[in-house]
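Researcher: Good morning. I'm working through a list of sequences from a screen, and I'd like to move beyond sequence-only analysis. For each chain I'm collecting a predicted structure so we can compare shapes side by side. This is the next one on the list. No need for commentary yet; just the structure.
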Amino acid sequence: MSQSKTTELPGSDRFLLDNSVIVDGRITAEVQAGEFAGATLIMPEVAMAELEAQAAAGREIGFAGLNELRNLQSLHWEGKIQLVFEGQRPRTDPQKLHLTGELDALIVQLAEEQRAVLLTSDRVQSFICKARGVPMRYFESPAAHRLESLQAMQYFDDQTMSVHLRAHTLPKAKRGTPKGMEIVHLSDQLLTEREIERMAREIVEVAKQHPEGFIEMDAGGSTVVQLKNLRVAIARPPFSDALEITLVRPVAHTQIDDYSHADLLKERVNQRYRGVLVSGPPGAGKSTFVQAIADYLQQAGWVIKTMEKPRDLEVSDEITQYTALEGDMANTADVLLLVRPDYTVFDEMRRTEDFQVFADMRMAGVGMVGVVHATRGIDGLQRLIGRVELGMIPQVVDTVIFIEAGDVRQIYEVSSTVKVPTGMGDSDLARPVIEVKEYESQTLAYEIYTFGDQVVVMPLQAVAEQKPLWKLAERTLEFELRRLIKGELAVEIKSDNRATLYVEDDRIPYVVGRGGSHIRQLEEQVGLSLDVRSFGEMDLSPGQEIEVQVDERYVLLDLDPSLRGKTVEILVDGKPVFLGSASRSGGVKIRRGAEPAEEIYTAYKAGRSIRARRAG
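Model: Good morning. Structure tokens for this chain:
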């Protein structure tokens, strides 16, 4: 192993160890290679106490250090070295001493007292020794560490997404991509606990030495390590019921143009600072997608940062990746607000505090892209409810992107308004409503509002599924009411006992009658509660079902009376296919052979949804 210049006593055979050379296994390897033959290796009691405290807290470093001491003890019994323990046990928590630097000072002091050469691979400790004139030998980290040399890397190939190693089971891997993945067994030999322990220790040692290695978390039997683009999670009892290692790495680097609706996405995020929620089930490709978004925004001239724990996104070198400062993303947010990025990618949000940090940064004017686990697009938005004030949600998140099987499946636009929720007929029930629309078609998909003490997330697809059952009733009711009321009218059935009646503005007083006398008579005759409104109040955002007639020359569309003389859009399955003016009688005539006519005709024959709405 490569070493720096040393400053040690000539002919010295007494060497004092610090935890850095214990944990990384350097001394064991050196002794096994013939170095330090017959020498006395001194283990400080204060350093021993620190390893014990780390192991008791379930930290991988503690277990690694104790395992190495066990190996040194075996070499002691073989007569290759003398291993002794010296010094006093600390009276306070050794981990607190480590944080303040007092632990290192006690180790250096013991080296002076024992007239021993201090062995360390801690660069700061080596500087301290040089400054105090204490003899030491500094073991440099290797100039380059090839991750391919890790024993666990034998299980990876170019198509491997993740490797799953657990004691007393067969090693397994997920291979393929989020669009097509399979689980395969990598060997017919069961893994032993010793094999996995050896791999875990090796991973932790390399993480401490590798220039792109980080120990992101180490507590309670769970250790998370980041080695370049490789994320490693180590779990051991009591946190897990058996020792296991999970290694994950990306198998593809994508660009935004690789995804469906790429042009819509670029238009959406480039307009202004956005609050974007990227949701999807685990393994769907969310992180790969946000990497593509981050790279696109950076290339478009925006200043981009990330908030990650652990830091495992593969992004451009121009993008700075931050983790939790002192274990708290709120501290990271404080720094980012000073840096003032245009967009920040938050990968991933799980805890309530994460959503609150996301909301605070968004309200401060920073564009945010957050990643959450969800089985549907709307579920990601629902995770904000109760964590962020309901009325603030559209200001925090205005775009929801749902990822499934490695591609964009849905894009929702989130906004707020004050209206009567769909399905409620009484105008007195108007309230703030969050509208969630399909971004491309602008079809209203969900409404979120309060009802009493409850927050309601109402899927409007369910309402749309009921309307065909009511369509015949609407036509029958319109026919009956036209016999009783002069002028144009339209009817929407809202429930089994309620309907909305639309008439011209100047006809409302007549229809209602003095003190509501006329409308009560109408309600008694038709057997439904009627809510009278003007045509201008009709909710045409998703459009209204229309009658279609076809002859040899034209496709004829019979529209709602409220659209007479207006510019209208015709939608097939929510997608606009025609833009034009309705006649004074409320109809649209499109010549056969034209693309819109043929698309509408094909949808008509297939029984698909054909709707009309006011344009602009």
